[in-house]
Design a protein that fits this description.
Layout lengths: L4 H14 L9 H8 L3 H14 L2 E4 L5 E4 L8 H9 L21 H19 L2 H5 L2
Antiparallel strand pairs: 1-2
Helix pairs in contact: 1-3, 1-4
Length: about 130
């Protein structure tokens, strides 16, 4: 399991939004400049975040982006998976046919426990938890 650059940049971009005063609208260029993220890559990431409702897009001269819902209602799991897809510790957890031994693998049982722990951890951690630091 690895958080991709897209996942990292999505997190940093949303964290930047979460740290702004309530109802602020921020230009993508401001986020890009402040977080040292390539603007075009960030814009593409924010398209996905907008489609999912995690981010709101505002058009016009004073357009930009804002959070689509309160930071305390955005889990880190939801954010990362929106940007980079499902997070799994091992391929056999999302594709049991990946390995011939999946049905009888003693190590897979450990992966399942670890996956449950990771899912719980990422679901409980919210954007607000990190915006206040």
């Amino acid at each position: 399991m690895e958080v991709t650059k897209a996942g990292e940049y999505g997190y940093l971009g949303m964290l930047y939004l979460a740290k702004q005063p309530k109802d602020s609208v921020v230009r993508i260029s401001d986020i890009s400049e402040n977080e040292k993220i390539p603007e075009k890559f960030l814009a593409k990431i924010f398209q996905n975040l907008t489609k999912s409702g995690l981010v709101k897009s505002h058009r016009g001269a004073k357009g930009g982006f804002s959070l689509g819902k309160p930071a305390q209602k955005i889990s880190i799991k939801e954010l990362l998976e929106c940007v980079q897809g499902p997070i799994y510790l091992n391929r056999c957890l999302f594709s049991p046919d990946y390995c011939d031994r999946s049905k009888n693998c003693s190590l897979r049982k450990l992966w399942v426990k670890g996956q449950n722990f990771l899912d719980d951890l990422l679901m409980k951690a919210t954007l607000a938890d990190f915006a206040s630091r």
